[in-house]
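Researcher: Let's continue the batch. This sequence belongs to Apolipoprotein D, and it's 212 residues. Same format as the previous ones, please.
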Amino acid sequence: MYGREIKAGYGVRTVAVSVTFTMKAAITSLLLAVVVALSDARMDALRHVSTGKCPSITNKQDLEVVPYLGTWYEIERFEARFEEGMDCVHVQYSDLGEGVVEVHNMARTAEGEFADIVGTATVLEPGVLLVVFPDGIPAEYHVLDTDYTNFSAVYNCEQLGELRYEFAWILARHTTLDQDIYDHARKVFQDNGIDVSHFQSTHQGEDCPYST
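Model: Same format as before. Here are the structure tokens for Apolipoprotein D:
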């Protein structure tokens, strides 16, 4: 095709420029397609998206898995699409052995039905676990701080270009938190440069279908 069009030096340069632009356009389109696909995948899971870099956070370096096992209740969260309309959210962590923890999330849907999903978590580094659910994207679970008996401050942020995708939870061993412990949990996020104004309360109460 190009051979028939090349008749002189100028033609060669013209075709070269055309091919270069075509390749650049193709590469740009491919990169944009990848970014859109990744964005769509994240957006399927997440509502809280903003511009800027993920904050530099400090995980709980001496996190111990065994005392962290058991039931935790969600007190507050950053709104996430996979939790949209859900309340009574709680999770059961169980030891499966060989460094693997079962993650059993439970909640009541907006339609009033009980919903649950089971995944696994493994320790990546101190204070960080990799959580995987069926047909889901593996995600890091950063424990910023916990006292094991009252609260846990959990966070994750994923960077995609200029966008950051944030998950955050305040968990408790009971369905409520004392005010001083709650204030401390929020301060943990603030000390890590995380905007706590994005937190939304999760309903917990006697009307919830708790399984434990």
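Researcher: Any comment?
Model: The first strand starts at residue 49 and ends at 51.
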